[in-house]
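So, read this over?
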Amino acid sequence: MFNLLYSNPDVDIQVPPASESVVNTLGSGTDVASQQSYAVQEQEHVDDVEQQLAHTMAELAQLRLREQQLEAKNHLLEKVALLNSKQKASRASSLDPSCEEMFAPCHPSASEPNLTVSLWNQRHSVSVRDISQLTVAQFSSIWTEYMREIGGHLLHLRDEQRMCALALEGTKFMCCVCVVNPAALLAGMQGLIDKDLAKTQPIDTAYYQKSLKPADLSEQQVEDLLFLRRLYIHRKGALSLKREALMSKPYSSGSTLHPQQELDHVAKLAAALKEVAMQDCKAFHLVAHAMCRGVLSAKQVGIWQLHMYPYISSIETTLDALATEQGAASKQDIASEVTADSMTEEWEAFEKYVDYVVAHDPHAYVPILDHNTRSSGASSLPGGAATAGTVRKVGMY
């Protein structure tokens, strides 16, 4: 009947057979399943490649770390070999003859402050007065021996407690030199401890960064040191503003001063300026103590000082070099934030932190910041279980 109704030759109607329609439908379903299977396989391949890449990157990171460790050890070997050769050349296996007159058996005098120097297989008592009179040659001899002994302990991994004690003792010795013998300190900062070696290793930002890297600072230690730098810049800036304010004060409101009044005014101004200068100097020593006896462990201090040889490191330059490496704010940018009362509360709390580390002489890292609190969005000074409860918490940057 269908053929009769549509048998008109003028009408061209094509009806696909039922079997072809079914085939197309089945084919469409097969294509979808095939595409899904391909997509799954493709994703599995991508995941596999990403896993291989992550594994390769991790291996590469380990190789780079190993390379850095080997470079540091090689540098340590070179330093220790150099120091040992200097000892053999000077035959200084016992007390350096140039220091014999000032070194006495270790019986500290009650009449004047003394330091203990445990070198040349002996314990010596050296008065602060004698340290103030050290020549550059004598200072160089003492510091070189400290570095030689510390290097030997680091290289052979022997008696770490002795090495930490030496590093702390050397730090105290250097702090004393800084206060009473700035000429010797300046010579050390200029590399005059070993002129020939200094010529082959010019000091710059990269040298400071390279010398601090073997200390293997933790993220928390880096945060503490960067905060310490910011705090110090604010403190120095506030003192500078105070100094400028003192200098800008006129002698009088327009009236002529009697010579005696002018003398009194100048004397008071000089006393006020001296007090600011003393606070500035104190700020430097507090920061140095915090870095060398709190933020860095005794072992890290020894490593850092040894890799700085033949130079004596500058605390400020070290902190700036670390800031540059970490991409932190420049000194100029931080200084632009300073006001007359910048970070006053933080500084007061920081002084108590320094009191703690100086009194306890810990060989381990004592945090400045409370890193657990900081991670939740708050800040406090200082942190660490050792100082908890000894200093009230204050807001930070």
Remarks:
- Residues 242 and 248 are 10 Å apart (CA to CA).
